[in-house]
Each structure stands twice: as structure tokens, then as C-alpha cells.
Amino acid sequence: MASNVFFHNFDTFLNTPPFSIITPATIREAIDPAIAEAIDEIETIAHNQEPPTMENTIIALEKSGAALERVLGVAYPLMDADGNDELDAIAMETAPKLSDYSTRITLNEELWKRVKAVYDSRDTLALDAHDAMLLQKTYDSFALSGAELKGEERERLKKLKAELSELTTKFGQNVTNELKTYRIKLKRSDMEGVTPHIIEEAAQLAREEGGTDDDCTLTLAQPTYFAFMKSASRRDLREKMWKLYSGRNTSGEFSNIEIIKRITALRLEIARLLGAATFAEHKLRRTMAGTPAAVYDLLDRLKNAYREPQQKEMERLTEFATAYEGHPVDIMPWDYSYYSNKLREKEYSYDEEELRPYFELDKVIDGVWRLANRLYGITLTENKNIEVYHPDVKAWEVTDADGSYLGVLYTDFFPRPNKRPGAWMTNFKEQWTEPDGTDSRPHVSIVMNFTKPVAGKPSLLTPGEVSTFLHEFGHALHGLLTRGRYASLSGTNVYRDFVELPSQFNENFLRNREFLNSFARHYMTGETLPDHLIDKMIAASQFGAAYACMRQLLFGYLDMAWHTVTHPVTDAEIFEREAVKEVTMFANVDGAMVSPQFNHIFAGGYAAGYYSYKWAEVLDADAFSVFENNGIFDPATASRFRKTILEQGGSVNPAILYREFRGQDADVEALLHRDGIK
Hints:
Layout: H1 24-46, H2 54-63, H3 66-81, H4 85-106, H5 109-120, H6 129-143, H7 151-179, E1 184-187, H8 196-208, E2 215-218, H9 222-231, H10 235-246, H11 257-273, H12 279-283, H13 292-325, H14 333-348, H15 352-355, H16 361-376, E3 379-382, E4 394-399, E5 405-412, E6 424-429, E7 432-433, E8 439-440, E9 443-447, H17 463-480, H18 501-507, H19 513-517, H20 531-540, H21 545-563, H22 572-579, H23 599-602, H24 612-630, H25 635-646, H26 654-662, H27 669-674
Parallel strand pairs: 5-9
Antiparallel strand pairs: 1-2, 3-4, 4-5, 6-9, 7-8
């Protein structure tokens, strides 16, 4: 493998991936030898004849598998952001191999003995916080993965994990592959009320696919779908679009129905092998919440606080829709975005689409970068010498206030057929510290699906899309500013219910007038965003807050239901309806489901963890209240937030970090006030 790029440090500027010479074939040929090399390193550690120590066992284990990390650190982000059939096939081939590799570590009896020996002597080792956390995490990863299982139970766990790995990969591929099959053929006359940029985008796609000037072709890409549902006057077409979107992956070639039933059955059996009654009980052992009861306590408290306000919101919306149409309207799910947008416009004279011209993507980028500079002193400079994996992608060199190098950020903003929907942050390389003290800095990527420039018009964002950008950049800051010793504890490698704090915290700045005035300019006239529109946007930020909360609670309850089952599910649709009945806001529609497209919990690592968005929202509202009290751009507060929250990664228990920043535990009151519930 001497000629394969993954078996050497990348010989590029800042050691970034040389995408121009990385092909699916390069990835495929590297995986098996990289796994074999990693296994050899594991066996060497396990059979070391010297007494087990922190250095020769725990840290050696942390440092093993460097070539494999390089391969996967590039392959998986590419599969999500710029995939193809060959990469999909590689993912399916690799999933069972990686599952086997993982179990060969955690179920290696000799290795477990050494890990346990170091752990049992921890009180005599005088470990600092980083080493103590690495030891604890390593021990837990073995103990919670079945290291103490024997014989048939051990072999059964290996088989279950291999099948689970394969199915979660298949689930995500099905979501992506079905989404790109949709083409909804309409005429311009059908597009009454639809925002002009969506009409032009649909007309351009129709022309590219051989249509006439009167034709429009819609996809179910999120920017297109959400904009259509919010603005299209034709109720029958909104209903059609909603049913297509909500019925994805429920039947046919890309159905995920049997897959989700099998995934949750596998997770339940794995949990029981590992001594837990449910998968949620097993998964929550290394979280801030700790137990399913604590999660349900949070969900129930929020449900009880937001239920009555949500009912009042819906009553008001129904009254408005009835008056608007001149006849009684029974609000259905395909009506909510449309009428709530109209009501928001009436009550606040505010329509998100009205603000698009003021949020040109390039200007938003500049504003977000300058916000990070003002808060944390960092600078982002585009560097065209850094290779990118697609022409849409840009690479930015990130430096600190003193000019020192912090990392590389890749930005990827536009939809593509082989790019999965949604928005996310990931790493091509984690941060760590070399034994000689050299700080090996991270390579971070943020990926979104905003409307592309069309017909000479730049990409223009809604405030909601600007919020998404701020969210993912918050994750990126967590990854870029980290100063950990070990890769597995750096950046966003924290407890799942803590990881959303930096991202959701960052969204708060969209309500700040001074921040908005720093970049929001009309893309044609250069006019700043008028004060009256800022006032409306801020006033409207609480509009529909109860609905938004109940929608997130629906996802949280659904996730917990799937992962607190004590026996396999037989009918997924009935199960889903029962799981969310207390937070369901509309009449049920046959064939419409959330679970078959719920990437977060069935393919994205949030199993028994979706509640963490609301958990972190309590934290972010509470944390931002400190900035509001001390001054939004107060240097001392921002410095403390950087040092305690953004730099520490997972090297310290997050409850300790938060108390260090805040001086106390988070309280739900700040969230209730921010949402206008109190």
C-alpha cells in the first residue's frame, strides 16, 4: 500500500485531503489494509508483556488505527456530501467489516484485562483531567460494549452489531436515493402564490429536462419543499407535496419500514445482552441526562408548559384561516406553513420571503465570520490553495487573534442530486496534541442545502436559513477552537445532550440588531435591512414558538418510544401514532410517517438522543441570558464561554463545564421567557 495516499500523512498545504487524487477506488483499496494494520496494532497492545500502564495501553489504544482514521475521515463525509453509487456500495461493503473491527477491540479479552487493570489502579496514578477522562471513556466503551460477555453471548453480540451497522447504512442510503427520484411536473399557472425564486428554479430544472417555457419541475429538496408549502395558494398541490414528502420510504424499493423494525429489535437485544432493560437505558449511561426517566421528565415538563399556548396558537390560526378563506377551515398539516405565514404577515406585516433580498449568501458569510472575530478574535480567510471535493465548496484558513493557525473550514452550501438533505457539521480530521506538544489542528466542514444562484441572481437566504448557517457554524466553532490532548475527546466529541449547546447558542444572535446591521444589505440597492423589518423579525421570533416546541417534542417522544420498547414492534405506523398521540397537533393521515425518514435516530447517531436538542436548548437559552445581562459582545463573557465550553471538548464532564461558565446549573425559565411562554 506504499502508493496509496491514505498510508502517509497527506503531503499538502496544512495536510488537508488531496481530493483530486482520492477516488472511490483509492478508498476501496485502502480500507481492508487499514483495518488489518489497525488490528495488528491492537494485538500488539493486547499482548504487550510489560505491565499495563496509561501510556502502553490506554494512550496506545487512542493512537492506534491512524491510517483507518484517515480513510474514514474522508470517505464518510464524501458519502454524505458528494456520494455516488460506487461510494454507496463501499459503505455497504465496509459496514460489517468495521463492526467486526470494533467488536474485535471491545471483545478482546486480553485487551480488556489490561484496560481494566489500569482503570482499577486509577486512584494511584495522579492523572490530570484529560487523562482521567480518556481512561474513563475507554473503560466505559469496553464495559458498555460487552467486554465481560463470554462464549455464545459474545459471538451473538458480534453478529447483532454487524447486522445493525449494515442496516443503519442502508437506511440512510434509502432516504437519499428515494428523495432524488421525485420530479413533480407543473405548469407556471399552477404556481400561484409561490415565491419567484422557486418558480424560476423550477422553470430552469424543467428546461434542463426538456420542458417548455411554460413548464415547472419541482423536487422535494428541502429549500424547494419548505418554500412551496409556505407560499403556494393551491391547497390541492400543497396536500400533494406534503403527502409525497411525508410518505417517503414507506413502500417500494426504498422502503425503510422493515428496516426500522429490525434496527430497533437489534438494539433492544444488544441492550439486554449488555445488562439494560431497554436500548435507551443502555445508551443514556454516558449522557448528562443519565436515564430515560430524566429524559421523559424534561419532555413532560415542556409538554405541560407549551400545550396550552400551542392550543391557543392553533385556535387563533383556525380563526384566521376561516376569515381569510371566507368559509370554515379545518387546519391540516399541509395548511400550517401556509396559513401561519399569512398570519405572521398580517400580525407583524412580516414574511420571511420579504427579507431574502437582504440576506445574500456572500454577505451572510462575511457577517457570520465577523461575528466570530468580534466574540473570539478569530479570522477566516478563503484559501484557494486548499483542494476541495466539489466546485461548490470553499476552503477557509482559520487563524486566532495572535495570527496562529487554528484549522481549516470547508463550506458546502448548495443541493446536489447525490447529497443528502438537511444540514450538518463534520470533520475530515480531528484535533489532538502530539507527545512533543505539537498541536495538530482540525479540518472541519459545514454542509447545507440552500437555494443555488439562478438566472443571474445570487443565493438569497431566509432568516430561517441564516439561523441554520449560524447553527452549523456553532458546531464548527466547537470543532475549530478545541484544545484537547486526545482526538476522541476533542471538539464535538462530547456527551450527545451537550453537543447542541454551541450550535443552538449561536442562533440567538439572529435576534440582535447590531449583528444584523453589520451585514444585512439589499443585494441590488445596498440598502441596509430597515429597522422596521428588524423589529418585525424580532417580534415575530416568538410567533409559533409553542408549535415549534411541540413539533420537536414529537420527535423526542418518537425517538424514546422506539428505544424504550421491551419487545419488537409489529406495526410501525400504529406504533408511531401511539407514541406521539399526546403531542400530535393534526388529524392522522394514512401513509404519512416520520420514522422511515428519521435519519437522526436510525442512521445518524441520535438513537435515544433526539431529546438532546431540547436539553441543549434549555442550556443555550440559559447561557445566552448571561450575555444579555453582561452585554451581547462582552469580551470577558465571550472569553469565558470560549475557554469553558468551546475549547474543552469532551475532556471534562459537561455538567462541570457548564457550572464553571454559568456559576450554577441551567434553569428552564430562560427558555420559557425567550419563547414568550412566561
